[in-house]
Amino acid sequence: MSVSRRLVLKNLGLAAGVVVLTSRAARGAEASHLDVKDPTAIALGYVENAAQVDVKKYPDYAAGSNCENCLQLQGIAGNNYRPCGLFPGKLVAVSGWCKSWTPEM
What SS3 state is found at 83? Predict the structure, then answer.
């Protein structure tokens, strides 16, 4: 079976087009904000505003702790919602808090 240069170049062009289209789609798909009613958010006691933490339910909460100063927070500083290692594919409020809060080092 012989393979022509034209066939190889055509297939390479098609493959490159598929790669470009899928990478554009992946970049264009923006993560959504974490819903406080999400089962994982409920399990971890996530709130969008740390001032709303029920200190009776979460006695380990320390005033001043929030997602912005948590080790799990990712992304670019300055954004009000950023990715979190605990909630893949979701964005958390930097003013939020959950019981897995870990101080930055």
Answer: strand
Tell me which amino acid residue 104 is: E
Encoding tokens for residue 18?
């598929």
What is the rounded CA–CA span in Å between residue 31 and residue 24? Answer: 14
Which pLDDT tens digit goes with each residue over 38-61? 999 999 999 999 999 999 999 999
Structural tokens at position 67: 């997602």
The tokens of 66 are what? 């929030």
3-12 contacts: CB < 8 A, separation 24 or more? none
pLDDT digits (tens, 9 = 90+) for 59-88: 999 999 999 999 999 999 999 999 999 999
